[in-house]
Structure formats: structure tokens, C-alpha cells
Amino acid sequence: MSLDKWLVPKKSKTSPAGKTLTADNFRPEGIEPVNVFMREVCQNILDARTKDIAGNLKPAVVNFKILKEGQDLDVGVINKYMGKLDPFIEASDLNDVYNNAKISPCVLLIEETDTIGLTGETTDSEFDLNDKNQRWNLFWHCEAKESKSGAELGRAGQGKITYNTTSGCGTVFAFTNQEHGLSDLLFGKCRFPSTFKKDGTYYLGHAFFCDHSGSGYDAQPLPIQDPKIINQFKDDFKLKRTHQVGTSWLIPYINDEHFGKEELIKALISEFYLSILKNDLAVTIQGTKVNAKNLRNLIKEYKVFKEESDENFANWLIDTVQKSPKCFTLGEKWYLGQNDSAAESSLTEVEINDARSRYSNFETIHFKVPISIHNKKDEEASTVYGDIYLCKIEANKTKEIYARDCLIIKEEQHLKRAPGKQFGAFIARDDLLNAFLGEADHASHVKWTPHNDRLTKNYNGYQNSLATVRNSMPSICRLIHNSEQTIYDDIFSDLISVPIKKGAKRKKPPVKPTPPIPPRPKPLAEYSLGGRDDTVIINNGPGFSFNGATKSIEIKFAYENFTGVGNAFDLYQTFEFDFEKFKNTDFKCSGCNILERDENWIQLEITEDDFEFSVKGFDPHEVRILIDDIAGKEAYDA
To answer: Theoretical Cys-Cys bridge with 116: which of 35, 44, 47, 179, CB 3.0 to 4.6 Å?
Structure first.
């Protein structure tokens, strides 16, 4: 027999129809759904930790269990709670997924302890929605409501949609005990992909498992009141929670092939190994404990990382965090620009020589870099410090992470623009720095964006602060690597120069001082650059060297700065153009292939002696180009 506890709101004439758009923010290309889900769940758990007597956050203890009908659960037990919603699901876009999920019915149970539970008012869904402590309303009754701040990991209020999208019936149940509040609160919510029509009536894109007061459009969902239903729910799904504060989550009809034990362990470790190392998370998945002591063994046993180089990088970072490598603190005026090395004056001559020696000997080095953050609430900017770890490598390709506390921002990849090969990590541990970077987060937490409204609202000079963070690792790497780059300016000349107006005299660009290097003969131009209409063309020049092997180059673009002040590449902003958003048809490759493209750079693999690469979308007279022969630099620096 099914429980008749579902409230399915009808759509009013003034309610918008259509899809649930926030779900699209959590389908990033190249990231498995289990990773997206694990990131959101653990992030919320970390943000909800309780404090000890001294005011320090306790480690969160989490237990994941996969429970199957006929093995761990009684046959038909899920239908007891979902049966009354069946006709609505079948009328919605969930129908096909739901029918497939019912073939092998199972649930995912997540029980967290030493967390504060879904706190706040439970009988008024409009109560003080600007208070971040109203976790009950913010989780169940808000959409894209930005409530978290400071050093908390969450931000946009959208990630909770992943709890529902993980379920074959779009549903999540929760049983929670509030810290300093109510206990035995049982509630559930189904999220449909869009509004839908059933028997001639239109319905909104959600439904609640609840009691309720009022009726019609004014119905107020309430936690389940009947102790018999609450106790039966706990018994049916093997919940262990009694009086402990925290929340037990139940997600029915999961796909246990995609969300099985192995997949959950891999996702947890790959997303949160920094948090596990700090002992902020103590997790058990289907009886297997995951902690700082066995982290390295589990990485190997479960083949957490697909590539050996990624596993080597994770093991390097584990060693680095657990040990204390030599640390250098840079002076405040260390950052000069996106394509510049850090100022030599930011360290003493003895420190620079020491750092370069350690780097060349493949030692890991720790740098503390000052970053200026100006919150509009403060009269003056504050100087905070980010932690950078660098190590020169030979056998692997460059690997890196940028992390906001323990949250790895996966699409932030900037160290590969630096010369040579290295492992690198930027970790923000300072609360003010974490607060700033949190405001830059995309909703999916995979990248930072300078166009986030929260940055504009809360910070002065946020573009420079974010640019300093992003460019910190390559900037320091250039300083200790001590290598050269070649800039190609005018694409109509083998030795490209800055475009000038007719009748004007050509001005020589200022030459920046560089560290003394052994004199080298001036080479022939390796690359020939030209263009027509709105297309830039790059091909092999008279000095191009190929020798039958593939060759990798990186090409950077920037619009000419007509004021003549500043470096065009330093002044680049993503709103001007972004190669990640270009269409494949905008590029043409002959004798070469695109490896990666993002923002204003393209990495190209050359496979033939005569190659040609072109890209649409630029006036050849107004663009500047920088080409970095990656393979050549690595061979020269070796």
C-alpha cells in the first residue's frame, strides 16, 4: 500500500512554464555525473559541520550505503513511498528514466554526523530567506538563492538539484535533527525536468512528500507529523540516526552501475583528497573507510585516476601537504603582469638563487604570495597570502590544481603556459581569500569568472585580484625557470611588429630588461603569419624545424591596444573573445591539430613539415599574436 503523502502543486496562469534550467549548470563536459554529485554533497556537508567547545570545526563523519530491494530492503518498499506519485512521473519527462530505474530498484543512503542538520523555520516557506541559517527553507523551497558567504564552499544555491537528478524518479528524502532545534523531521521532494500536463491540468516542476496546511495555491508544505510513518520510514530504509544532530539523505532508484561503490570511492577521492588529508572528512562507503592514512593505497587499489600522470601528481601533492618543503615569502610588488615573470626584487638574491637551485634539482618549493583584496565594506585593501607549491618534473606532463580551501576548481589551468614541465598547486587557505574566490565561482564550482555579479557588488579591483591568483604559478615559474619567449606582433611580417597608421613613423616597442643569458644567434622566423578579411593564417616559416616528429606550440591572441599603454596580452579580458566558445567550423587545420583551446590561447600539435592553421573572427590588422614553441623551450631548458 502506498502512502498518500505527496503534494503536487498545480501551475497557475501566472506561473512560467518550461524546463528546470539549473540542472544544465551541472552537466559540465568531461566530468562524470557521480563526480558532480559527490562534489555538491560533500561540499554541503563540509559547510554544515558543527564546532567543538573551542569554536573549531569538527570533522564531518559520513556513511554511504547502497541498499537493494530483495537483498538489503524488502521488495516493493520504495514503491510504498513513491506509488502515489507514479501517475505524475509517468506524465512527465521523467517517465523513461523512471521505468528503467524500476528494473533494478535500489537506494543510496547518506548519513552524516557532526553536522548541524537542516536548521531553521519549517512551517513557513517564506521565512527570512536571506538568513543562511534557514537551511530548511533554502534547501527545500529556494532556487538559485545565494545564501552562503565567507569561506564556505557553496555559493549559488543551485547544487542541490544534483540530489534529485541522481534519482531515477527525481526524488530525495531527508530525515534531520537540527542543532539547537527540532528533531525527527521527515520530508521529501521530487523535481520534474519541466512543468507538465496530466489529465488536462498543468503542474509545476516539483512535488513534496509532506504534510501540509491550507489548500490550492496557498498550501504550505510541512514536515511529516505522524511518528508511525517516521519510524516506519527509518525501519524500511535502515536509518541509524536516533538523537544525533545531522541529516540522513535517501535517494531512491539510483543507477548502481554509475553510482556503485567503486564509482563513489573514485569520485570522493578525486574531488576531495585535500579535505581527506586535512581530516575534515571521515567517510565510509559500503564498509570501506576512506581517510588520510589509507588514501594513497585506495588511489592505487581503485585506480582513481585514469592517467598515470594524474596519479603521480596526486601522490606528489599528498607528500607535499604532509611535509613542509622550503618556503619563500614574496614581497608585495611581486606581480608584474600576465606574461611576465615575478619581480626579482620580490626575493633577495640569495633566496632567488636558492629557489632556482632547488627547482633545478627537482625539489618541491613552497611560495607564499601576497594578493591584494579590497572588499567594498573596508576603507582599504587587505593583503592576504596564497600558497603555491612547485616542482620541476621530467617523466610527466605539466599537472596543476587551483583550490579554494579543499575544493579543486578543475577548469582553472594556467601553469601549462609557463616554460618547462612541472607539478604545481595553488591553495587558498586564508579566509578572506577564500571568500573572494568563492564570489568568483561558477555555479558548478569548476571555474572562476570575473563577470560574476557578486564580485562587482562586493569588491573593488576584483579583475586584478583574480588575475593575480590565476597567473601566480606561471609568473613564479618564469622567475625560477629563467627562460625566454618570442613575441610575434604584426601578422603580415616574418618579424611581426605593432601595426601603425598610414603616414605615422614606426615606433620601436620598449625592451623589457631580462636576466643575463648566453648570447644566441638571431634565428630565422619559424612561423609565417598572414590574413584576409576576418581570418588569421599561421603556417611554417623559413626557420621552421620539424624533423619528422610532432611539435607542439601555444598561440596567444590579443587585440591591439590603441592607446599604446600597457601590454595587450596583460589587458586581455574574456568578454573580448573566448576560444572555448568558438565553433569548430571557425578553425581550419592542415598538417596540424588543435590540442586545447580556451580564453585567448590555442595549443596546436604540428604533424607535418608544411602546415597551415587558420581561425575566423579577427581583423588581421588589429590583432597581436604570441607564439610559444613549447617543445623547443622544453628541449632548450632541459
So the answer is: 179
